[in-house]
Specification:
By secondary structure, this protein is mainly beta. About 10% of the residues lie in helices and about 60% in strands.
Length: about 170
């Protein structure tokens, strides 16, 4: 009996360690399809927080997005609260519920999978800081809230240690 209770306890503990996947949202609506949502003009507002939760920077981002079949270009223009501006142009290829993307500051390819109202991207970002460039692991989640609104939450880490979190809320025009 004692072994059974220990085994049950271990199973409960280990089930808490299971990672969330896009498939956990497979039945949620509205369905997230990057080629539908990011087509045309989209506005976004967000912030970067450090490990303690302190807000480091705020941003407004304007996206101009175009798709030709399964190939898309997301042209992002960031305006940061410290007055700096930044540009990132994503080139994305859609293959069913999977997405592959590249951008000038992304090392290799971003790979993502969509299910239901969610999409999860993983990629390495070359982040310039004070004259040095750090390669940061990005775990990037998106969820459709309604047909015009999307939430985006990204965890930035280095060597498995969470360094910062980025939250953005997008609104399709």
């Amino acid at each position: 009996m004692m072994r059974w209770l220990i085994a049950l306890g271990m199973a409960v503990l280990l089930s808490g360690c299971a990672a969330v996947t896009p498939q956990d949202y497979a039945r949620e609506t509205p369905k997230l399809d990057l080629s539908t949502y990011f087509n045309g003009k989209v506005d976004g507002w967000g912030m970067v927080q450090d490990r303690s939760g302190k807000v480091l920077r705020r941003m407004y981002v304007e996206l101009d997005c175009k798709w030709n079949g399964n190939e898309g270009v997301l042209d992002e223009s960031f305006q940061w609260s410290d007055g700096k501006t930044e540009k990132r142009v994503w080139r994305i290829r859609k293959d069913g519920d999977r997405y592959i993307g590249t951008a000038g500051d992304v090392i290799g390819e971003a790979k993502g999978e969509a299910a239901g109202n969610s999409l999860r991207w993983n990629y390495v970002l070359a982040l310039p800081v004070d004259g040095s460039t750090y390669h940061m692991d990005m775990d990037d989640w998106m969820w459709m809230i309604d047909d015009k609104t999307m939430a985006n939450r990204t965890t930035m880490s280095k060597l498995g240690v969470r360094v910062a979190e980025i939250s953005i809320f997008f609104r399709k025009r």
